[in-house]
Amino acid sequence: MPPHYSGVMRSLTQLAEEASSTPLSDTDIDWLHLLLSDWQVLADLAAADLVLWLPTEDGRFIAVAHCRPATSSTVHLDDIIGLYLPAAREAELRRAMSTGRVVRPAAARWAGTYSMTEICVPVFHAGRVVAVMTRESNLSAPRPSIGFEGWTVAAADVLCEMITRGEYPYDSTPTVTAHGVPRVLDGVILLNDEGVVRQATPNAVSCLRRLGIRHSVIGRILAEDITDVVADEAMIEETLAVVVMGRASWRVEIAAHASTVTMRALPLHEGRTRLGAIILTRDVSEVRRREQELMTKDATIREIHHRVKNNLQTVSALLRLQARRSGSEEVKGALAEAERRVQSIATVHEALSQNVDEEVDFDEVARSVLRMSGAVASTDHSVEVVTTGSFGTLGADQAQALATVLNELVANSVEHGLAGRDGMVRIDAHRDDHALEVQVVDNGVGFVPGTPMSGLGTQIVHQMVRGELNGAIDWAPGEAGGTVVTLRMHIE
Questions:
Q1: How buried is residue 193: exposed, middle or buried, by Cβ count under 10 Å (0-12/13-18/19+)?
Q2: What pLDDT, on the 0 to 100 scale, is given for residue 116?
Q3: Beta pairing class for 61-67 and 49-55
């Protein structure tokens, strides 16, 4: 297969815009994307490679998408997207496009060291054929022993015929984001038009046994057996009956006997005539158990943070009560500082109790802590605390340490730099990937460089910055007076 003129990897949309002989509309492109999003199921049922081809302006065909089967060996070991179809194979694809019918080969052909067959399926949408899909099977490769006896290939044939009529892929399939979407290898059940089971792979039989269906389901109505095992369950999804009867391309989770099985229906029909359905099954009991464990752990962690916050607020209230009963101004001041420090830590735990991650949006925490620091430290004069920039998201440990540091720096600016006067404290945060620089600037009286800074608040700041934050901090006089404190830290 000769290469395309460009080696640059391009998307389906780009290839369609550059190569297609007939311009495709946005809805055509969306239809092709919808086909690609679900064609792994078709490749596994057919045990064949699927290749999507678009006609080019020079009368050739270019490969724009490729899917390998999980139930058989692939035909193409190398990537073929962006390559032209050999000229010897173009006639069958043109016939499929012109007739709008599936074109089957008269005989197998040799491809190197193995024989293969190629079925050409025209992709129909909005009244015309917009592309051709080839189903290429490696006849020399044995299929895995998973219970296939040819009936899955017949089901793939029906889906291919539906593609030629624009009936597949399904446009009503809901988007699923949960883990455990069923695949062909996980289990397949074939239903007739009345919902009676005709075939089932061993993995599908195992899934049914997990639900408590231990008898053979061949020749029985699947919906009735499923109803019997879930009759005593408290939670039953409304879509259950539609899925197990194969009426619509929906998914449902069935829980019974401490097991959970996901089922997805692929209706098979010809126009308005129902031919039956393929039911994909998957045992997701272990997946759901782990998810439940994680949810329980998350809830426990949030509850712990909530209780810690409540306990810290109780300690804060006791400190405030003790300060009111004290007759010493020095004791009152010390207790007020202790209360402020406890409240800053409680603010972080309150934020942690609101999410499932051990991370917080520190911008919200900073606003709360700084507002409290300025209000508590300022008593007889007006101080405005302003924040600029963004701190971003921080882990629990760093958030708690940084909240304490900012609390001390703002309180120090208010109590000492702006003592007895109105003023402003500005906090500038600059986040760059994993580095954070914070400046705390006040327009107070400033300080004399070289003077010892041995207060308790300063000691707390130094210990937190060098320890928990693994950063550096320095004090400098402001150009127009006041003090500039610069903190640099690495974000974990």
A1: middle
A2: 84
A3: antiparallel
pLDDT of residue 443: 81
For residue 165, the tally of other CB atoms under 10 A from its CB is: 13
C-alpha dihedral, 303 to 307 to 310 to 314, nearest 10°: 180
Q: Which two tokens stand for residue 95?
A: 């016939």
- Yes or no: say if 398 and 436 are a contact pair by the CB < 8 Å rule: no
Residues 369, 341: Cα–Cα separation, whole Å? 10
User: Which sequence spans correspond to the domains of the chain?
Assistant: 12-164, 184-283, 289-490
List of residues 6+ apart from 209 with CB closer than 8 A: none
* Residue 6 φ/ψ, nearest 5 degrees: -130, 135
- Note the pLDDT of residue 239: 83
- What stretches in the chain show pLDDT beneath 50? 1-8, 145, 177, 378, 452
CATH code, 289-490: 3.30.565.10
User: Within 10 Å of residue 166's Cβ, how many Cβ atoms?
Assistant: 17
The Cα 258–Cα 228 span in angstroms is 15
| pLDDT confidence of residue 189 | 96
The CA-atom distances, in angstroms, between 392 and each of 345, 385, 406 are 18, 19, 15
The yes or no reply on domain 12-164 and CATH 3.40.140.10 is no
Decide: residue 426, CB within 10 A, 0-12 exposed, 13-18 middle, 19+ buried: middle
The reported pLDDT for the residue numbered 375 is 58
| pLDDT number for residue 198 | 95
Cβ(376)–Cβ(345) below 8 Å? no
**Rounded distance, CA 368 to CA 362, Å?**
10
CATH 3.40.50.2300 matches 184-283? no
Q: State the pLDDT at residue 448.
A: 63
Q: Can 184-283 and 289-490 be said to share one CATH topology?
A: no
Q: Among 195, 191, 187, 193, which residue's Cα sits nearest to residue 148?
A: 187
pLDDT at 482: 80
477, β-bridge pairs: 483
Q: How far is CA 211 from the centre of its chain?
A: 29
Burial code of 209-247, b = ≥16 C-beta within 10 A, e = fewer? ebbebeeebeeebbbebbeebbeeeeebeebbebbbbbb
